[in-house]
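In keeping with the milestone schedule agreed at the kick-off meeting, the structural modelling team has produced records for the first pair of proteins. Each record is given below as a sequence line and a structure-token line. The laboratory manager (R.T.) confirmed that both were archived under the project's standard naming scheme.
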Amino acid sequence: MIFRCLSAIAAIAMATATPSALAADCSPSGCGDTSCAPCAGGPSSCQSCNTGCQVCGGQGFCCDGLLGEGIDVDSLTPEAQSKQLYEALQARLIFELPEDADVYLADQKMMTPGAKRTFVVPVNDPTKVYHYRFKVDVVRGGQKYFKNYTLETLRAGAILKIAIEAPPAVEGEPATIAVAVEPVAPGGGPSRDKSADDAGVPDAAE
């Protein structure tokens, strides 16, 4: 009799368990054990209420399929990214350009495709400002055209957006390549020595 009562109490406890108590049910399906939420239609509707695993355990709970705590959005701000780049003695170049354009850094052709391409370049001395040269080329009207460009103020921690425009050209007519640079973050670190900016601008190590 006592055994039957204990079994009944256990059954009731399982039926009324909270989502957090059943979160471990995600583990057998490979989802991990975080971010589980109740699935209104039971296990059969889990596929529609998450983007990771289809069914988490057998208790009618869904998991988002992502492990870990997640990403702190404050770490994604330009200031936070600039600080990380500064500490790593790097700068970031973000190119927005025609998909058929080629980019050359340090005389090396970059193989990254697309209309938006991001590159991280080394900066030897965090206290100095550098010149940094790159080249862009395109084929227009059956002819290849290129443009060399020099960034005048590249610092450790800098994030620069570089917009390239190279509109179509009729065969036999010259093409144009325009470059516009917008600093997302100037770099130089939080306590940049202003006197270093006036000490001359050497070429960056490419």
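The second protein of the pair:
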Amino acid sequence: MRSSRSVTALVAVVGLTLASAGLLAQKTTDMHKGTGGSPHVRSEWTVAGASITVEYGRPFLKGRTIGKDVVPYGQVWRAGADEATTLKTDKPLTFGSLTVPAGVHTLFVLPAADKWVLIVSKQTGQWGTQYTAGQDLGRVDMALSAAPAAAEQHTISVEPTSGGGVLQMTFGTVRASVPFSVGK
């Protein structure tokens, strides 16, 4: 039988190895409840040496339909609830042809039935419905797929890959995703 000290040391080594490989699962911290009751969280990942943080409100479906009652097609959506959704990274990230420099940015989404478009804004600190197109850093298409399981609450996640990851937004039975690479 191993001592608890040996097990703790093994877990620490495995954790450090996974962290250095960029394969640790997300760490999510509750922040506060929004004015509409949606919880707000901070999710953090280490991916290919980059520290990535997303802060967002997590609305519930509550029987509403994506594209109609919530996340209306053809209208810019705050990618969450209440305050604007923020992305913070300490290294540049490249989504398709869009390079997002290190720093803090705001995420919006332009949803449609066949694809969603991720919008990265240079403007930060605004309420989620205060979108200004002239502040766009850029836009990139997100692929749509069926979520592996229905998500009653909007969820943003990052799945690590070799040299980067995949940013995913899951809500209801919809998953929108876009791969990214990490720069230096």
